[in-house]
TrEMBL record:
GO cellular component, as recorded: cytosol; dendrite; postsynaptic specialization membrane
Native source organism of the sequence: Culicoides sonorensis (Biting midge)
Region described as Disordered: spans on this chain: 181-215
Summary of the function given for this chain in its UniProt record: Catalyzes two steps in the biosynthesis of the molybdenum cofactor. In the first step, molybdopterin is adenylated. Subsequently, molybdate is inserted into adenylated molybdopterin and AMP is released.
Matches recorded under Pfam families: MoCF_biosynth (PF00994), MoeA_C (PF03454), MoeA_N (PF03453)
Catalytic activity: molybdopterin + ATP + H(+) = adenylyl-molybdopterin + diphosphate; adenylyl-molybdopterin + molybdate = Mo-molybdopterin + AMP + H(+)
SUPFAM superfamilies attached to this UniProt entry: MoeA C-terminal domain-like, MoeA N-terminal region -like, Molybdenum cofactor biosynthesis proteins
Domain of life, per lineage: Eukaryota
Residues in MoaB/Mog domain copies: 7-158, 385-526
Gene: CSON007218
Recorded metabolic or biological pathway in which this protein acts: Cofactor biosynthesis; molybdopterin biosynthesis
Gene3D superfamilies, alphabetized: MoaB/Mog-like domain, MoeA, C-terminal, domain IV, Molybdopterin biosynthesis moea protein, domain 2, Molybdopterin biosynthesis moea protein, domain 3
Any single biological process term in GO: establishment of synaptic specificity at neuromuscular junction
Protein's UniProt name: CSON007218 protein
GO MF annotations, alphabetized: ATP binding; metal ion binding; molybdopterin adenylyltransferase activity; molybdopterin molybdotransferase activity
Length: 626
């Protein structure tokens, strides 16, 4: 029987820390099974922490795309009872009548049970986020049961309306009207199709695919096509609501200059100084005459009965006592509104700040801070695992061992993720064994990783197990070779059921560096970007002139590491020495990846002055000016 997906989320500090046993969660799960039959139910426990509750609600709603999330607990009057506040920050639309139906059912059971009057202390709310219904329930088993009994008949109908399953709305109406029977389970309509996982193998004349074939069975595809395939298999996080300002900026009329607050009608001349106003002082409401003023600092609130600010440079001190100004002369005719920032002149209340993206950059965080918002969970990032494969690898802190090398790829890849605002949730060195790789994949899945970045194990060696292990574990290989240098073995796979991306980078450090920038970074950005941000997904591309006298081309398009020189506004690229894929030093000074065309009989090399495209690797991408 097809099914809907339900989440039971217990909100309790004591249950989360293990000092108490969760009873309401299992009770609710049993009620769901009794009333909705063989349905899919996910369970979770979070502490009474608003941000943690929000984070888990977003995961279940936006990633898991559950139909209904039931929270239990945290709806009372206590200082740690914040479930309604967290829910309100997540939902797009409220469903107040559901909450009313639950409270009405509890109140109807009052009778002689005076303890039930405590239902009046519940602040539970209900609402909708995208296609997920979120319902707050109290924390006791008795209250959970009473509340669920009140709404159990309308839940299937609510789901069908939310997901726009109109074909079943009529039958649900008939079903509800005929009386709800918990032993005749309603048919839900979430379809789960079986997936046959297979690699996309397209042998050509040189790749027979036979067991003794010495060539890769995967066709060589172009870089642009590989990027498109990644984008086609990228699930965007459901966008949060755009941020809007809850305040005016400035929230009061603010002085632009250090000077004197006056009435414009008083004109110029000598004024009596009534007092001093500093930034942060409350708005002064003193009535003043035309020949009176206040001394005021930049950013301070303009007094209620003043309408102009005269800067200090346009005044003259007349009298002073004990360092306190008593009289000043205004040397100009002040105009109404002079050097005053009006309320909301920088930003008006309810103005859209920016469309949500992840991760937020520094300026976006600053804008949010300026309107009193500090974002933690809503700046949630994809969870990413970073693997380095190979029996030969040692951690950098290990002692040298003959025949072993130090793993630099993990350090490089986790650092690159951090540079671009992401972070690694899991890092591991994986031995050349199927069992170790399968264990690592399972660990990444358990941690809820959205993307796995692995280096090594994707070439043609006897111990390169990546591709077969992926296919055996539910992944479809989307491509296994790319027509580029360095990085030909670049592999991308996708598990459509669990929605996990797998980026198989070559093991050579420079190859891993290049393929990260050309494939992994755009994929992660695509996962996190709005539809109108396509231009920001890939690295920016500039046009440069080659400085090297001569550079021999490869049979494949090459992405050479180069530094940029600026001469009188023109940009020149100088290739950084030996470009062998194992030489990490060629990356250290690189400002760009220089796009070199494949070799042809007519064009075996490029020379000084040749115009080329280049992908910019960093903000400060000019190494020197000449």
């Amino acid at each position: 029987m097809s099914e809907y997906e339900y989440v039971v989320l217990t909100v309790s500090d004591s249950c989360y820390h293990g000092s108490a046993t969760d009873k309401s969660g299992p009770a609710l799960e049993e009620l769901l099974k009794q009333n909705y039959g063989s349905t899919k139910i996910l369970r979770g426990v979070v502490p009474d922490d608003e941000n943690k509750i929000i984070e888990v609600l977003l995961i279940f709603a936006d990633e898991q795309k559950a139909n209904v999330i039931f929270t239990t607990g945290g709806t009372g009057f206590g200082p740690r009872d914040v479930t309604p506040e967290a829910t309100r920050r997540v939902i797009h639309k409220e469903a107040p009548q559901l909450a009313y139906l639950m409270i009405a059912n509890q109140m109807s059971n009052l009778g002689a049970d005076q303890k039930n009057k405590m239902v009046a202390l519940s602040r539970a709310i209900c609402g909708i986020r995208n296609q997920t219904l979120i319902i707050n329930l109290p924390g006791s088993v008795k209250a959970v049961t009473e509340c669920f009994e009140a709404i159990k008949e309308v839940i299937p109908h609510a789901i069908q309306l939310i997901i726009n399953d109109l074909s079943n709305v009529k039958s649900t109406h008939q079903y509800v009207q005929s009386g709800f029977n918990s032993h005749q389970h309603h048919h839900h309509h979430r379809h789960h199709h079986g997936h046959h996982h297979h690699a996309h193998v397209c042998p050509n004349k040189t790749n027979s695919g036979a067991p003794d074939d010495r060539n890769s069975a995967f066709p060589m595809i172009e870089v642009d096509r590989a990027q498109d395939i990644i984008f086609e298999n990228t699930n965007k996080f459901a966008p949060l609501q755009s941020f809007a300002s809850g305040v005016d900026i400035p929230p009061f009329r603010a002085s632009i200059k250090d000077g004197y607050a006056v009435k414009a009608s008083g004109g110029k001349g000598i004024k009596k100084v009534l007092g001093y106003i500093s930034a942060g002082d409350r708005i002064n409401t003193t009535q003043l005459k035309d020949d009176e003023c206040f001394k005021i600092n930049t950013g301070a609130a303009v007094p209620m009965h003043c309408d102009a600010i005269v800067q200090i440079e346009d005044t003259k001190l007349i009298t002073e006592e004990n360092g306190i100004e008593k009289d000043v002369e205004i040397l100009i005719e002040p105009m109404e509104g002079l050097d005053i920032r009006d309320v909301g002149s920088d930003l008006k209340r309810a103005t859209k700040l920016f469309a949500h993206r992840r991760p937020l950059n520094t300026v976006e965080h600053a804008v949010l801070a300026s309107v009193g918002q500090i974002v933690a969970v809503s700046d949630w990032k994809p969870r990413i695992a970073v693997f380095s494969t190979g029996d030969e690898l040692l951690t950098p802190e290990s002692s040298p061992i003959e025949g072993k090398i130090f793993d630099s790829n993990t350090t490089m890849l986790t650092g690159l993720l951090k540079d671009f605002g992401f972070e690694a949730t899991l890092t591991r060195i994986i031995k050349d064994s199927k069992e170790d790789l399968e264990h690592a994949l399972s660990e990444a899945e358990t941690l809820g990783c959205h993307a796995i970045i692995s280096s090594g194990g994707v070439s043609m060696g006897d111990k390169d197990y990546i591709k077969p292990v992926l296919t055996e574990n539910g992944f479809t290989i989307k491509f296994g070779r790319v027509n580029m240098k360095p990085g030909k073995p670049m592999t991308f796979a996708f598990n459509s059921e669990k929605r996990i991306q797998f980026y198989g980078l070559p093991g050579n450090p420079v190859s891993a560096f290049a393929t990260f920038h050309l494939f992994v970074l755009p994929g992660l950005r695509k996962m996190s970007a709005d539809d109108d941000e396509e231009a920001k997904i890939r690295l920016p591309i500039i046009t440069v002139e080659l400085l090297n006298e001569k550079y021999s081309l490869d049979s494949r398009p090459e992405y050479a590491r180069a530094l940029i020189v600026s001469k009188e506004g023109r940009l020149f690229a100088e290739i950084t020495g030996n470009q062998i894929s194992s030489r990490l030093m060629s990356v250290m000074d690189a400002d760009v990846l220089l796009h070199l065309p494949p070799r042809t009989d007519e064009r075996p090399f490029v020379s000084r002055g040749h115009i080329l495209k280049a992908s910019v690797l960093k903000h400060d991408f000019i190494s020197r000016y000449e």
